Amino acid sequence: MALLYGLAIYNVQIDKATGKPNLKIQVRVFKNGEQLFAGKELPFDSSNQKDLKRLDAGGGISLGTSMSPGEYVLQIIVTDMAKDNPQVASQWMDFEITQ
Fold first, then answer.
1. Distance between CA 86 and CA 88 in Å, rounded?
2. Is the entire prediction scored with pTM above 0.70?
3. What is the C-alpha separation between 16 and 31, in angstroms, rounded?
4. pLDDT tens digits for the chain (99 residues)?
5. From 2.40.128, 2.60.40, 1.25.40, 1.20.1050, which CATH number describes the 2-97 domain?
6. How far is CA 79 from CA 1, 2, 86, 97, in A?
7. Beta partners for 36?
């Protein structure tokens, strides 16, 4: 099984050195408050974005066959590295595996 996700990122700072956003994105999966998976923090490629005020992002993760039925939480963490003090935004959503 695979879980595909999409998101929009707003209020991004533009890196003065490159003229582009400097973001990192990480995905985590939880069940009953326990972290089951933490993806690597990956750089966001903004080269195909039409509007730097609203960035579209997405991806997918393989859920594998060992995940038992139940309720899970997908968390997406975006870190804006363009400032001296990086800003972090996080969003989560519930999903369920039924069989």
1. 7
2. yes
3. 40
4. 889 999 999 999 998 888 899 999 999 999 999 999 999 999 999 999 999 889 999 999 998 788 899 999 999 999 999 878 899 999 999 999 987
5. 2.60.40
6. 28, 24, 6, 29
7. none
